[in-house]
Amino acid sequence: MAMIITDTDIAKVDAEVFSSAAYGSQVRCGGTNGIVAGTQFTASGVDFNSSQVTAGCVIYLHSADGTIDGVFEIVSVIDSTHLTVSQIRNDPTDSAIAVGSASGLTWSIKTLGPQIGAAELELSIRLGLKPGKADAAYSLDEIQNTDTIKQIAIAVLLAGVYTVLYTTSADATVRAGHEAKRAWYGQQVERLLAGVTIVLPAS
User: Fold this and answer.
1) What residues are paired with 29 via a beta bridge?
2) pLDDT for residue 21
3) How far apart (Å, rounded) are the C-alpha atoms in residues 135 and 119?
4) What is the largest CA-CA distance in the chain?
5) CA distance linking residue 24 with residue 188, whole number of Å
6) In sequence order, what E strands does the chain have?
7) What phi-psi label fits residue 28: left (phi over 0), alpha (psi between -120 and 50 degrees) or beta?
């Protein structure tokens, strides 16, 4: 089953999860030698293809002077050392939006791909669809009202992510913030599921 949400979809809702220390083992690549010029990013000594970087991933960029600092969208992989990057766009069909120009950037590309897979499996179980329900007639990625389902899948994922962040943080203030977000996204899941109508292909 193809994944229905991407890292970029998650970043549109809550980019903070990509700058947290958790899931450090899921950093595909990174360094302190990034160069960005408008919408093009490059770094020497890295192979984006072998690191399995794809459109829909996100990249964290930080310049020494702080003028560039945040999570940005990877629009395309030009070749093994060059990416097209953008400020997070409202619509994926829009043109890439320039990030700025700087060199010596601290950068990292982290994915929540494994968590996306787990969240989508959980959602498919709750909706009675494949892959969670193996004998179902339809699968999660066949749902036609995709925007609604993406919204629910992202909420499922973020509820799970903030549960992990809550349980792994030793700072009481940070834990309280993670717990509040975990509860919020959990409530969103239940609210959205209660009101959703699934549109499937005509049989």
Assistant:
1) 109
2) 59
3) 20
4) 58
5) 27
6) 27-38, 40-42, 58-62, 69-79, 82-86, 100-110
7) alpha
Write 69-72 long-range contacts (CB < 8 A, 24+): 70/15, 71/11, 71/15, 71/18, 71/19, 72/99
Among 164, 154, 195, residue whose Cα is nearest residue 13: 154
Measured at the CA of 7, the angle between CA 79 and CA 56, to 5 degrees, comes to 35
Rounded Cα distance between 170 and 190, Å, is 29
Q: What is the pLDDT of residue 25?
A: 75
Give the chain's domains with CATH numbers. 31-108 (2.40.30), 113-195 (no CATH)
Q: Are 79 and 111 in contact (CB under 8 A)?
A: no
Characterize 33-53 residue by residue with b for buried, 16 or more Cβ atoms within 10 angstroms of its Cβ, and e for exposed: ebbbeebbbbbeebebeebeb
- What is the value of pTM for the model shown? 0.92
Confidence band for 18, pLDDT divided at 50, 70 and 90: confident
Q: What is the pLDDT of residue 83?
A: 98
Residue 53 phi/psi, 5° resolution? -80, 135
What would the two tokens of residue 144 be?
């036609």
Q: Decide: residue 196, CB within 10 A, 0-12 exposed, 13-18 middle, 19+ buried.
A: middle
- Tell me which residue has tokens 């945040």: 70
| Angle 113-119-121 from CA coordinates, rounded to 5° | 105
